[in-house]
Design goal:
This protein has seven helices and eight strands; from the N terminus they run αββββαβαβαββααα. It is of the alpha+beta class. The chain has a single domain, classed as Class II aldolase/adducin N-terminal domain (L-fuculose-1-phosphate Aldolase, 3-Layer(aba) Sandwich). Strands 4-3-2-1-5-8-7-6 form an eight-stranded mixed β-sheet, sandwiched between helices. 43% of the residues are buried. Bound molecules: zinc ion (ZN).
Length: 237
């Protein structure tokens, strides 16, 4: 299947392979079961996203090329109903090249405890502020997609209360790694809360200086590439 002809064809082909792999990674890491999806921007005003199926089943030949208004431009099949999350984040954020939408268990738990993810370990630091979208339910309209994008703002990660999380980054690999780190951070936070008898004030979260410094150490091409390689290998094992 070819999405774009000419000089861009090769680039889009390898992007499609990354998108498919990213979907299998979020499944392999336990961030999704039957639902959820990872996409990548594929040129001006369009993105690649899997057809309506579990991310575990994503393949480069099972992707759709869509525009930011929700139209399918190329590919066979039905889009996931929550494609609006992706469409409207790409519309709002020209800097974003990859969007991950997951139903991560620990993220759901932390959100329903009335908290959000705060860094208490290294990989949590690059996530930045994590706003919470409060409305329960699926994001199945342009308007709800807009609201989600507005809640994310200029951030990298957000929680959807009772639902999961969204992550946005400059490319699909970074967004996927950050989504894995987000769930890791949420799981640590859940564990720390349990150990502290539910008293969040006993947890020594990173302060602003620590957060910025550690984020600067980890949000770099080399550690991100190493993490992608690890998650990719694990997901295909
Ligand atoms: Zn969802």
């Amino acid at each position: 299947m070819s999405y774009i002809h000419g000089v861009l064809a090769k680039t889009v082909e390898s992007l499609a392979a990354d998108v498919a792999l990213a979907n299998r990674i979020v499944h392999g890491q336990g961030l999704v079961t039957a639902f959820g999806h990872v996409s990548a921007r594929a040129g001006e005003g369009r993105f690649l996203i899997p057809t309506r199926a579990s991310p575990a089943l994503a393949g480069a030949d099972r992707l759709l090329l869509m525009d930011l208004e929700g139209n399918v431009l190329e590919g066979e099949g039905t889009p996931n109903t929550e494609f609006w999350i992706h469409a409207r984040i790409y519309a709002a954020r020209p800097d974003v090249g990859g969007v991950v939408h997951v139903h991560s268990p620990a993220c759901v738990v932390i959100g329903q405890l009335g908290q959000t993810i705060r860094p208490l370990h290294n990989s949590g630091a690059p996530l930045g502020e994590v706003p919470v979208y409060e409305r329960a339910g699926l994001i199945r309209s342009r308007e709800l997609g807009e609201r989600v994008a507005a809640t994310l703002g200029q951030g990298r990660a957000m929680l959807l209360r009772g639902h999961g999380a969204n992550v946005a980054a400059s490319d699909v690999r970074m967004a996927t790694v950050l989504a894995c780190w987000l769930e890791e951070a949420a799981a640590y936070q859940e564990r720390a809360l349990a150990a502290a008898g539910g008293d969040a004030s006993r947890i020594r979260f990173f302060d602003a200086e620590e957060k910025e410094r550690v984020a600067g150490e980890l949000y770099q091409p080399s550690p991100l590439a190493r993490a992608w390689e690890y998650f990719a290998t694990r997901s295909e094992a």
